[in-house]
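Section 3.1: Structural characterization of target chains.
Under the original work plan, the team committed to producing a structural model for every single-chain target entering the pipeline before any wet-lab resources were allocated. The record below documents one such target. The sequence was received from the expression subgroup and is listed exactly as submitted; it comprises 232 residues.
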Amino acid sequence: MPDLNELADLYAYPESHKPWLRTNFVASIDGAVQNPEGLSGNLGGEPDAKVFKVLRSLSDVILVGAGTVRAEGYHPISADSIHESLREGRSRVPVLAVVSRSLDLPEQVVAPGLMVITPATSSVEKRQELSRTVEVVVAGETEIDWAAVLDAFAARGLNRVLCEGGPDLNGTLVDLDLVDETCLTISPHLVGGPAKRMTLGARAVERPMRLGHSFDEDGVLLTRWVRDRRAA
C-alpha cells in the first residue's frame, strides 16, 4: 500500500479555478454497492478505509444525499476522520453538504459546519429552523439547480468536491455530465441479491472515462477514473 504522502499525490485534485467534482464508491465484483446488511461502509475493508480517509482529507466539501446520510449514520466531519497534515492552508475539516428536499435530517448531523442544499419548494419553516444552526442553500425551484450549487461552492472557495453518494445523486450528476472523476474500490467478493449499483438515473448515458491509476492491496482493487472530455 502506498504511504500517506504517496496516496495524497495519487489522489491530488488538479489545479482548477472552478469546482472539480469527484465521486467515490466501493463495489463488489458483481457491482453491488452494499454488503448483505445493506450498507457500504466495510465492503472494501481496510484498504478502502485508508483511501476514503485520504479522499476526505483532500476535499473542501463532501457532498452527499440525505438518504445516504440516514442509511449510513453520518455525523459531522470530525478531525479523526481526516488527516490534518493534508489540510495545510485550508479549514480544519471539510464542509459537509447534504442534499435534501424534505429537510428531515437526523439530529446528530445538524451541527455547525453543515451546509444543506434544497430546492425552493422545500418547507420554508424547516429552512428557517435549520438556518439557526447551519447554512441553507436554496438552489432551483422544484429540482436542484446543480449549476447554482457549483457556483455556491465556488463562491465559498470550495472547489475540491467529493461526492459520497448515493446512487440517485450520483445518477443525476452523471446525467448532467458534472462528474469529473470517479474513485472506485472493487471489493473481492460476490454479493448477489438486490443490492443497488453505483448510479441510478432517469436515462442511460455514455460518458467516456480514462484510467488515472489502479493498484491492489490484499486483493482489493483501488482505481481512479477521469472524465475524458476530449471524447465528448
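The chain has a mean pLDDT of 93.
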